[in-house]
Write a structure and sequence with these properties.
single chain; alpha+beta; GTP Cyclohydrolase I, domain 2; four-stranded antiparallel beta sheet; 33% helix
Length: 135
């Protein structure tokens, strides 16, 4: 993509308020999470869905990993954080994941959704969704 076209794409994004996105969907982790004693005795399966706001114009033009977020690395770090955590609340884990993602310079915002199947008596699951933005 010529420089002028890349700049036009970037300008379009900033004018409309739209941002390119990277998604990691269905990241499954066995985590020690919960407030009740039974939840603290064994790991439970949770699923994370993540959305990252990133300017992807350079990567779209160059086809170079250096011009984007290495989402394989990011996935590994998030998985390790969640698997090794001892949070009581899904909200606290989501906060830790959001802060980790914002350590990556290109990421402008992140939306973290964590789904915990079997956490409710009558519902299939309980989920939280938090959004974090760089200032």
């Amino acid at each position: 993509m010529p420089v002028r076209e890349r700049e036009r794409c970037r300008a379009f994004n900033s004018v409309t308020g739209n941002m390119d996105r990277i998604f990691i969907n269905g990241l499954r982790v066995n985590a020690l999470i919960g407030c009740y004693p039974a939840e603290r005795e064994r790991r439970q399966g949770i699923t994370l869905d993540l959305e990252f706001g990133v300017d992807l114009a350079a990567a779209a033009a160059s086809d170079e990993l250096a011009d984007t977020v290495n989402y394989a690395e990011l996935e590994e770090r998030i998985h390790a954080l969640a698997a090794g955590s001892h949070f009581r609340l899904l909200e606290a884990l989501a906060g830790a994941v959001g802060r980790l993602a914002l350590e990556y310079d290109p990421i402008r915002f992140v939306r973290v959704r964590i789904d915990k199947p079997g956490a409710a008596k009558y519902a299939r699951s309980i989920a939280v969704e938090l959004e974090f933005h760089k200032e």
